């Protein structure tokens, strides 16, 4: 090859265009955080910290996640108790100053007849639970079980 042509080719920069394959194949990425434990002592310690009323709310709803099945594992992620199947996260609880979020990693795709879910993210949604405002317990438990079932389906279909 002629040296002038080679030099000209080396000076050209090619702009890479990112390709979102998820959109092409119709799959969402599973959020993986690493293997969890059947019972993580760090989560039990977290449940004992902070205002008792909020932690009891968080404890109640995280216990519902724990009871979804024998394959449920747990792990602290970003300082929040997170429920997983193997390493695939499906739900979490987060305590704030005056409320608890019960969150779902693929909550945007969950059926929510009671209208409990909040948020505008691409995938994640949460339910705000406040001590002074009752939540529809059955509807929230249904969302937790639906998030667990959804993650089981995602893992089966790869």
Second-tier CATH architecture:
Alpha-Beta Complex
Strand order of the largest sheet: 1-2-3-4-5
Could you give the order of the helices and strands? Answer: HHHHEEEEEH
Biggest beta-sheet profile? 5 strands, antiparallel
Tertiary shape: globular
Q: What can you see in these coordinates?
A:
- The chain is 36% helix and 19% strand.
- The N and C termini lie far apart (47 Å).
- The chain is built from five helices and five strands.
- It has helices at residues 3-11, 21-25, 41-47, 52-66, 137-157, and strands at 72-77, 80-85, 88-95, 100-104, 125-129.
- It is globular, with a radius of gyration of 21 Å.
- The model is unreliable at 6-10 and 16-27 (pLDDT under 50).
- It has a five-stranded antiparallel beta sheet with strand order 1-2-3-4-5.
- It has one domain (29-157): Aspartate Aminotransferase, domain 1 (Alpha-Beta Complex).
- The protein has 158 residues and is α+β, with helices and mostly antiparallel strands.
Summary, kept brief:
With about 160 residues, the protein is α+β, with helices and mostly antiparallel strands. The protein contains five helices and five strands, in the order ααααβββββα.
Short key terms for the protein model shown above:
158 residues; alpha+beta; Aspartate Aminotransferase, domain 1; five-stranded antiparallel beta sheet; 5 helices; 5 strands
Architecture blueprint of SSEs:
Layout: H1 3-11, H2 21-25, H3 41-47, H4 52-66, E1 72-77, E2 80-85, E3 88-95, E4 100-104, E5 125-129, H5 137-157
Antiparallel strand pairs: 1-2, 2-3, 3-4, 4-5
């Amino acid at each position: 090859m002629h040296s002038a042509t080679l030099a000209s080719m080396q000076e050209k920069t090619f702009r890479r265009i990112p390709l979102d394959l998820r959109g092409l194949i119709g799959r969402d990425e599973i959020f993986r955080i690493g293997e969890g434990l059947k019972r993580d002592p760090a989560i039990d310690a977290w449940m004992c910290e902070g205002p008792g009323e909020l932690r009891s709310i968080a404890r109640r709803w995280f216990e519902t996640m724990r009871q979804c099945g024998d394959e449920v594992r747990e792990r602290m992620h970003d300082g929040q108790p997170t429920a997983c199947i193997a390493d695939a996260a499906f739900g979490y609880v987060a305590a704030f100053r005056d409320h608890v979020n019960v969150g779902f990693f693929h909550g945007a795709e969950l059926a929510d007849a009671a209208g409990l879910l909040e948020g505008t993210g691409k995938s994640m949604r949460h339910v705000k639970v406040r001590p002074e405002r009752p939540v529809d317990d059955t509807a929230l438990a249904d969302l937790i079980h639906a998030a667990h079932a959804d993650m089981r389906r995602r893992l089966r279909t790869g």
